[in-house]
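Justification of resources, computational component.

The compute hours requested in this renewal are based largely on the per-chain cost of generating structure records like the one below. Each record pairs the submitted sequence with a full structure-token output. That output is archived, and it is also reused by downstream analysis tasks.
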Amino acid sequence: MDLDLASRTALVTGASSGIGAGIARVLAREGAHVVVTARRAEPLETLVAEITAAGGRAPVIVLGDVTDAADVSRIAREATATLGQVDILVNAAGGSRPIATDAADAAWDEAFALNFTAARRLTEAVLPAMRARKWGRIVNISGSMEPRSLNAASAAKAALHLWAKGLAGDVAADGVTVNTIPPGRINSEQTLNRLHPTEEARRAFIARNIPIGYFGEPEDIGNLVAFLASPMARYITGAVIPVDGGMRYSSH
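The structure output for this chain reads:
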């Protein structure tokens, strides 16, 4: 299926590994002109080489820290200058932040800066031009809304969900859609090294929680992002669409 993305441009945050990198691969494969951003240069360079070797359009690297307000403004400016315009913004930067019940404010502030405020600021930076052109796509990568223990990232992602839903209503008439994807367990650095570091732990978790029987791949998220970013998804906005192999705790 041709998703009609060859004439579109995209900015993907958190693209140095995992889900962000998978999203960039899919968008580039579909022909979009992509800017990838993260703090680390080497993984982004490796990603660009992989995409180019696979025949995709080579993404452009813009280094930066999305938790820094000045960097967010610069990333948006450089991406716009490179691409001409940003049609698609994918807010993929984020990370789990397990936290103690008596954690200091600084720990909460960092979790919200990464998992909520970065997406809000970057969206606000590119949104006026999208609204003026009467076309735009915002896709946010969030997290589970059914945590089993205290995690500051979960609270931040909950804010992301409701912010995105409210924003979707405000900008829908301007041709801009805003949607959110909560991923399940994806084969990524965070999942394999931190959440489930052994094959035994992975098999046990899958048996208990994932009806489809395996962890997903970053490109499983990327495929849905590409569809939501396409003109075919024009009537989908304000949605929260899990990609998790059936691992929705709230259904049990």
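The mean pLDDT is 93. The CA atoms of residues 8 and 32 lie 5 Å apart.
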